[in-house]
Specification:
mainly alpha, 2 domains, 0% strand
């Protein structure tokens, strides 16, 4: 049936691209380059269509069209945004590339101003509010892994103070200041290590998902896609290496 044929073709394409990317673990090869180019090309096309459908059409084309029909006079202001967008494209020409710095400067300036207030509220003020907490409240236990406890809040407040002391360079670090600064280093290393471990764990979970898919797609109903693609890709790479060793290219 057509639906089954389309599904099987999609499975074969997914298996081939996955194994082609994995083949880079052996060495750089044409299969990896082909999968890389397919990924970049498909991603670029997808996001281009997404930008046209969700940004350019509703935020520029439709308001300008309504403005020319006399339904929304404010839509003419969108022409300014369109002109700035065209100026971005002038960067492709060396003679007119300097014109693209104007919309770039406006975009960076506006974005920085908008993000500054948002980041201050979400990160700076949020961090301060999260740190100004009582160490002890009624009903608190001394230690708990999940529930608020005296020990957890003491570590939180003490860690923030020690890290701030580590970055306080205007005072000579000796005595209790040096000890607190050293503790701040440990808090920083634990934080960076846990963040890195979380990132690696997320990537490993993606790897497990792809390996599970390869195992599922090696079934008969998918035409043994994983087995055949693996045999073809790695078999060709192995044969190519043997030919290169037995018949090395002659230097001229």
């Amino acid at each position: 049936m057509p639906g089954n044929v389309a599904e099987i073709l999609g499975v074969w394409a997914a298996v081939f691209c996955t194994l082609a990317i994995f083949s880079f673990l052996y060495r750089d090869n044409p299969f990896y380059k082909l999968a890389e180019h397919i990924f970049v090309g498909v991603s670029t096309g997808y996001f281009l269509v997404l930008a046209i459908a969700q940004t350019i059409e509703p935020n520029f084309l439709e308001p300008v069209y309504r403005a020319f029909k006399g339904q929304d006079a404010g839509g003419f202001w969108r022409l300014g945004a369109g002109i700035l967008g065209v100026l971005f494209l002038l960067r492709l020409n060396k003679r007119t590339a300097w014109l693209s710095t104007w919309p770039l400067a406006l975009m960076v300036g506006f974005f920085a101003a908008l993000r500054m207030t948002g980041m201050a509220q979400s990160d700076l003020i949020g961090q301060i509010n999260g740190t100004i907490i009582p160490i002890y409240q009624k009903g608190f236990t001394f230690f708990s892994w999940e529930e608020p406890s005296v020990f957890n809040r003491f570590v939180l407040i003490g860690g923030v103070i020690c890290v701030l002391i580590y970055f306080f360079f205007s005072l000579e670090q000796r005595g209790i200041i040096k000890t607190s600064s050293n503790l701040g280093i440990y808090f920083l290393m634990i934080t960076f290590g846990s963040s890195y471990g979380y990132t690696v764990m997320a990537r490993v979970s993606l790897l497990i998902g792809r390996v599970q898919d390869l195992c599922d797609f090696s079934a008969r109903k998918f035409g043994y896609a994983s087995i055949i693609c693996a045999a073809v890709i790695f078999g060709l790479l192995f044969i190519t290496d043997i030919l290169k060793r037995t018949h090395p290219p002659q230097r001229t």
